[in-house]
Amino acid sequence: MENSGAFRELVSTLSNRGVPDAYRAALSLLAETHGGAPQQPSQLFLSETYVGSVLEATKAHLVEVLDWVSLSDTARRRGEAMLTPDIAQLLADLVIEGGHSSAIVLQDPLCLVASRLARMGVCVEQYCSDLEVPKLCAAIASMPAWTVVERDVYGYGSQSNQAAGARMDESLPCTSPSTAERDKGVLIAALPLVPGVSGGVHAKQLPYAASEDLRAIMFRYGATIARLIVLVPSSMLYRTGKAAEFRRDLLSSGLVEAVLELPNGTTPLATHQYSVLVLRTTRNPAAEESVFVMNLPERASPATRGRGRRVEVESSCELAAQVIDRRTEGTGNGRLLTYRQIQETGSLLPRMLLGGTCVDAYNTGSLSTLRDLVHIVRPTPLPEGARRPRAAVTTDSIIRALPYIRYVETTEGKEDGSEYGRAHETTADLEARDIVIVVKGTVGAVGLVEQPTNGLVVLPNSCLLLRAKSAAEAKALYLYLKSPTGIERLRLIVTGSTVRNIRIADLGGLAVPSLSNRACELAERALQAINEKTVEIQRLEGERAQLLGNSLEEMSKISD
């Protein structure tokens, strides 16, 4: 960031003199100076020589200046920090390695991508509903190939930063280009196109808004470009409903080239994970109905970044070339997966596709999927007004189970209404060797049922039952889910932005080892020994509590 020093000093000077939105005021001052009609320097008691030197430094290092601006609190409050410098560099690298000579850029209010591409010689058409900052940046850069057009994010409008004679027709950029021109074009966007659609009560709208926007821009710009590189919320890649239908349409159309998941902590929106989706606009027979998937590498951030970011996505020309060429050798964990493998998983999220799910089971005979070994049973809602069962399983009792779950009483009295079912309360009839797993909130906690309940017990609706098809395999499967490998594979299929959860489809596709007779016998002996120790520990804890109670009672008598 040292290259932005002159601009930072100017912003600090303006801020100290009470100028609001100092970074915008600084950009405006420099743009006016570049245009030969400076009006503000004398009003701000700044010499034209000083402003001119700052202009030259800013023009030479515009990318670094805009990177610094994007990390400011002001930019984040204004909703302008949707992109971050590391993500912008990744997108720019993908454009360059893709051999594109022209780019349409949407949703880049601080020009982090546009400025990089323009500096690299790419012809940029930037579309935005708020023309102020992009127009100022393009004026300072003074690059004929960088056009800023004031339109809404869906491409409708008519104002440009270019002089008279520039293309201004309403159909821009949707005229019919030659095949050679189209093959060189790419579109960059961050979805959803309308900022603020996520967060609070609207959080669940995010994946669906993003998929609708992606469909709209493909329809709007598809005839003018060869490739789309878009930032999408990761939830769009695994959610059901309309999002799933849209994913199936993309796959069946043969348009998905690559899916790249950003590391935790680098997301453009604080509460949501994001991924990069690389799409073709026409089917490519050479792709052989496969998709390149990768978890992108991360590196430590040189300092605490926006909203406490301590990591950033690592990008390089080599990594971008690997993605564009869809090469599985080299750095990273990139893999080519067929459409059939992806459809088996029901998700496009790399974490699920690469994290020990049914794709691995599909590729090797040493693994099975969880749904091959168990029936997954949901707890059933307790009818309104029905009496509550007297016993309940709690999340805490599942977490503490070693290995067997202990029950708690539910009914405290007959006059307080506690004997009747509550809203959203669920129950289950547990069988011996059932595995209870928490799939929402404290995800991954598991407990084993020792004896059948012979009736309903209250079971949290955040839990599922795994009922082994072979009773002999239940205990071995329980130990596997408690093992480091099992815990890691469960972690990789956890989704959700506000509440962590595991989808039933992903749980059923979890890759688990084929359980041999020897493994089952070992698990039986191990759990018996563990349970004996657990019972002994509980007895000792009871004796300790009794001793403490007796001693406190004696002390109270002495005090009296």
Automatic annotation (TrEMBL):
The keyword Lyase is annotated on this UniProt entry: no
Concerning its family, UniProt says:
Belongs to the N(4)/N(6)-methyltransferase family.
Q: Which residues form a coiled coil?
A: 523-550
One molecular function GO term is: DNA binding
Protein name, as recorded: N-6 DNA methylase
Which UniProt keywords are present, listed alphabetically? Coiled coil, DNA-binding, Methyltransferase, Restriction system, Transferase
Taxonomic superkingdom: Bacteria
Q: Which residues form the DNA methylase adenine-specific domain?
A: 227-300
- Please give the SUPFAM superfamilies that the UniProt record associates with this protein: DNA methylase specificity domain, S-adenosyl-L-methionine-dependent methyltransferases
Any one GO biological process: methylation
Query: Which organism is this protein's natural source?
Result: Cupriavidus campinensis
